[in-house]
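Consider the tokenized backbone below.
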């Protein structure tokens, strides 16, 4: 069967985890495995990380958390999405941690506590500059008052999220850090302390923005990808994902032949055009065709013309490809490498958008 293949190198993930956790100066590492571990396979990646000693994970939805629990993950799991009232019971049953980001959320779990005598475990999220989910600073003392009034509320953490931690200019991140510290100070003055305080994502780690916290939420670095071109590549990390696809056919094309939709690629000489079974419907980053290339037999070859929905073409020049062989689209096969960052920089997008969009037709292969 012909299909794109995502080879997930779990050994590289384990090594990245070791490298990053060593750099955290005794702070805890929460592995962010939402969106199917950024396209890498949430269950397999989480289990590998748990085997390495990681004991805290975050996902976005209750469904994602349930998938990990049902697969046998024992560790703490924080759900980052807006609280869904209908998921409170599941969170309790499955020992999951929910996100409380507004007075309404807090009221919902107080209502639940009064009715059922139980509280889910939760972290409260503070809005410091992202303008997404979170308590406004002016509501912090009211929220802490409620946490003090209802002793059986199971609050374990406080956090916020940086908007610009991986940018060259980190002044806005420093402002967010200051606002978070204000929230901590209000809690402190009211005599309330949190077990976990967390603010940094990968950019926060790279730009040393984690003071006053005891945990970091790391996603993209674990997968061996740097979050932007503006950060220092401080750690020797390995790309976890190797994305490949099979050559299913080839044809001889004469000089001057136009290849693919729009006829944007014209062959410069008589050449071999290979047809690779992977397209933008499989998560191939379509704009990459303009400057893009693949690796085959240790050599790079240009992508010829626009990427189609299910296939793309490669200009193999004099090389006669073997039908069924695979080309490397991105990642590393141990010899050749096309980094996700190379592609995202070339097509002026975020590296986060590359691996998270892999689709169902891809076959995932997990290598220990
Ligand atoms: C709330 C939250 N924390 C942490 C992360 C992890 O960020 P990164 O992948 O940059 O480490 C994300 C990612 O989107 C997030 O939304």
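A designed sequence for it:
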């Amino acid at each position: 069967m012909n299909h794109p293949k995502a080879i997930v190198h779990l050994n590289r993930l384990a090594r990245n985890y070791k490298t990053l956790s060593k750099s955290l100066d005794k702070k805890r590492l929460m592995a962010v495995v939402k969106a199917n571990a950024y396209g890498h396979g949430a269950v397999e990646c989480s289990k590998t990380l748990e085997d390495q000693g990681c004991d805290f994970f975050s996902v976005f939805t209750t469904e994602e958390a349930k998938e990990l629990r049902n697969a046998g993950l024992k560790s703490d799991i924080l759900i980052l999405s807006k609280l869904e009232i209908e998921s409170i019971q599941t969170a309790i049953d499955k020992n999951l941690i929910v996100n409380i980001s507004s007075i309404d959320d807090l009221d919902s779990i107080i209502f639940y506590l009064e009715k059922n005598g139980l509280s889910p475990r939760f972290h409260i999220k503070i809005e410091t500059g992202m303008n997404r989910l979170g308590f406004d600073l002016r509501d912090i003392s009211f929220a802490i008052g409620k946490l003090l009034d209802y002793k059986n509320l199971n609050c374990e953490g406080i956090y916020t999220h940086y908007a610009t931690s991986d940018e060259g200019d980190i002044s806005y991140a420093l402002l967010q850090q200051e606002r978070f510290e204000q929230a901590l100070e209000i809690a402190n003055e009211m005599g309330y302390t949190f077990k976990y305080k967390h603010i940094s994502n990968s950019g926060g780690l790279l730009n040393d923005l984690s003071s006053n916290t005891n945990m970091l939420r790391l996603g993209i670095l674990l997968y061996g990808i740097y979050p932007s071109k503006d950060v220092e590549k401080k750690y020797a990390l390995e790309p976890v994902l190797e994305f490949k696809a099979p050559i299913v056919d080839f044809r001889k094309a004469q000089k001057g032949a136009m290849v693919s939709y729009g006829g944007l690629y014209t062959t410069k000489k008589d050449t071999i055009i290979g047809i690779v079974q992977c397209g933008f419907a499989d998560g191939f980053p379509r704009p990459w065709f303009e400057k893009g290339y693949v690796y085959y037999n240790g050599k790079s070859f240009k992508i010829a013309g626009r990427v189609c929905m299910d296939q793309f073409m490669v200009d193999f020049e004099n090389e006669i490809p073997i039908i069924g062989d695979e080309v490397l689209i991105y990642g590393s096969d141990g010899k050749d490498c096309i980094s996700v960052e190379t592609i995202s920089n070339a097509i002026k997008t975020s590296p986060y958008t590359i691996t998270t969009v892999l689709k169902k037709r891809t076959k995932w292969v997990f290598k220990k």
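The radius of gyration is 24 Å.
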